[in-house]
Design goal:
- Chain A: It is a single-pass membrane protein.
- The structure holds two protein chains of two kinds.
- Chain A contains seven helices and seven strands.
- By secondary structure, chain A is α/β, with parallel strands linked by helices.
- In chain A, strands 3-2-1-4-5-6-7 form a seven-stranded parallel sheet, sandwiched between helices.
- In chain A, strand 2, helix 3 and strand 3 form a beta-alpha-beta unit.
- Chain B is an alpha/beta fold.
- Chain B has seven helices and six strands; from the N terminus they run βααββαβαβαβαα.
- A six-stranded parallel sheet of chain B has the order 3-2-1-4-5-6, sandwiched between helices.
- Classes of the chains: A alpha/beta, B alpha/beta.
- The interface between A and B is medium-sized, with 38 and 28 residues.
C-alpha cells in the first residue's frame, strides 16, 4: 500500500463520514432539540435593511430575552441604520433581559444589480468573513428574517453541523412582504433544509410550502 | 379621525426615496386635483423624492375653488405628514411605510410603479387591498379610484403579534412556558 492509497482511503473515509453526517442532519433538521444545555443560549441575530429590521425587532420584543443571551447582531457593511436600531433596542431593555451584546458588520455577498461574475468574488469574500465571525461567536441560536446576508451565515452553520461542530438551531422568518412567493434566501433555506424552522407570514405560502410554519404576522 | 381643524383636509402623496414621476404627474393632473377637491380635500402635499417632474404649486388663490398644492423632495419626519393627513397616496415601497400608515388608521391608496422590475413589493399591497385594508391603483387609474373612493369599505388593519412565533421557537428549543 503506497502513499496514494492511504490518501485515497483518508479522502473516501472523510467524504463518507461527512455524507453520513449530512444525511443524519437532514433527518434531524426540524426536529426539536432534546439535549440542550441549561441556561441562556448564545444568539446570533441577522439584520437586513428596511422592513427586515423592523420585523426582527418585533420578534425580539415578544421573546423571553433572558433565555437568549449574549446576543450578537450582524448587519451588512452597507447598512448603517440596522445596527443603530439594534443598539436602541438593547438600550431600551431592562431586568433579566439585559445581556452582553455585540454588533458586527459583514460584507454582503451581492449588492442589488451587481453582475453575477463579480458576485462570485464578493460571495467568496463574504463567506470567509462570515466564517471568521461564526468561529468567533459560535451561536446556539440563529435568527434571520430574509436578507441575503443570512445565507453565508446559515450555510456555514449548516457546514459546522455537518462536521459535528456546534449545533446551532436556525430559525428563518420570511418577510411579511412575501405573500405568494418565497424570497431567494427563503427558498434556499427551505429547499436545502438549512433552517430548522421556516416561518411564513401569509397562508398562501404555507399552502405552497407545507413544511413552513404559519402562525400569523409579525407586523 | 383626520384631525381636521377648520375643515382642512390634507392629501399626502409620498414616493419615499424613489423617483416616481408617473405618480407625481398623475396627482398633479387637473383631473385628479378636481376629483380630490370634489371629495372635499382642501390641500395636496407631495413628497416627490428623487423625481424630476415638478408639480405646480398653488395656494388655491381662486377663492378656494380648487385644491391647494405644495411639494418638497425629502423630509426627515414623514410620520408628521402622515399624522396630519386625511388621505395618503403612496408608492408600493417598503412594507414598513405601508404598515406605519395602516397603524395610524389613515386611508391609504398604494400606487404601483409598473416601470420597476421585480415588483415583489406589490404582492403585499395587492393582498392588503384584497383584504380591504387599503386601495391599490396604477398611475393611470388613480383618477377613477379617487372618484369612486368608498372610505367606509376600508377595514382597519389589526397589528400582528409575534408571540406565537416566539412560542414555537421556545418549544423547539425545549424552553417550557414559565
Amino acid at each position: 500500500i503506497g502513499f496514494r492509497d492511504v490518501w485515497m482511503l483518508l479522502i473516501i473515509g472523510a467524504c463518507t463520514w461527512i455524507a453520513v453526517r449530512i444525511f443524519y442532519l437532514l433527518y434531524r433538521s426540524g426536529k426539536p432539540l432534546y439535549n440542550r444545555s441549561p441556561g441562556p443560549l448564545r444568539t446570533l441575530i441577522v439584520l437586513g435593511s428596511g422592513g427586515h429590521t423592523a420585523e426582527m425587532m418585533n420578534l425580539l420584543s415578544a421573546m423571553d430575552l433572558h433565555l437568549f443571551k449574549p446576543r450578537y447582531y450582524i448587519a451588512a457593511a452597507s447598512d448603517g441604520m440596522s445596527l443603530q436600531k439594534a443598539r436602541v433596542f438593547e438600550d431600551s431593555l431592562n431586568g433579566e433581559a439585559v445581556g452582553s451584546c455585540r454588533f458586527e458588520q459583514i460584507y454582503r455577498s451581492r449588492e442589488v444589480g451587481q453582475s453575477y461574475i463579480t458576485s462570485i468574488c464578493t460571495t467568496l469574500i463574504a463567506l470567509i468573513h462570515a466564517l471568521r465571525l461564526m468561529i468567533s461567536i459560535r451561536p446556539q441560536v440563529i435568527l434571520c428574517n430574509g436578507p441575503g446576508t443570512c445565507i453565508p451565515l446559515c450555510a456555514i452553520a449548516f457546514a459546522f453541523k455537518a462536521v459535528g461542530m456546534r449545533w446551532s438551531s436556525i430559525f428563518y422568518v420570511e418577510s411579511i412582504a412575501r405573500v405568494k412567493r418565497l424570497s431567494l434566501s427563503g427558498y434556499l433555506v427551505y429547499k436545502l433544509r438549512m433552517a430548522d424552522v421556516v416561518f411564513v407570514q401569509w397562508p398562501q405560502l404555507k399552502d405552497k410550502y407545507p413544511r413552513a410554519n404559519y402562525v400569523g404576522r409579525l407586523m | 379621525d383626520d384631525g381636521s381643524e377648520s375643515g382642512r383636509r390634507v392629501v399626502f402623496v409620498t414616493v419615499g426615496t424613489t423617483s416616481f414621476d408617473k405618480l407625481v404627474g398623475a396627482v398633479d393632473s387637473e383631473d385628479v386635483k378636481k376629483a380630490l377637491f370634489e371629495r372635499d380635500y382642501t390641500h395636496l402635499v407631495i413628497q416627490m423624492g428623487r423625481g424630476r417632474y415638478l408639480p405646480s404649486k398653488c395656494g388655491g388663490e381662486d377663492g378656494g375653488s380648487s385644491i391647494s398644492v405644495d411639494y418638497f423632495t425629502f423630509s426627515s419626519d414623514i410620520a408628521e405628514f402622515l399624522k396630519s393627513a386625511s388621505l395618503v397616496i403612496s408608492h408600493a415601497g417598503r412594507s414598513g411605510s405601508i404598515f406605519e400608515t395602516l397603524r395610524m388608521r389613515k386611508p391609504l391608496i398604494v400606487v404601483v410603479n409598473e416601470d420597476l422590475m421585480d415588483n415583489h413589493q406589490t404582492e403585499l399591497a395587492e393582498e392588503l387591498a384584497e383584504r380591504s385594508h387599503l386601495f391599490c391603483a396604477r398611475p393611470h387609474t388613480l383618477c377613477e379610484t379617487i372618484s369612486s373612493l368608498h372610505l367606509d369599505s376600508l377595514v382597519p388593519y389589526e397589528p400582528g403579534d409575534a408571540k406565537p412565533v416566539a412560542k414555537v421557537i421556545n418549544r423547539f428549543l425545549g424552553f417550557t412556558d414559565e
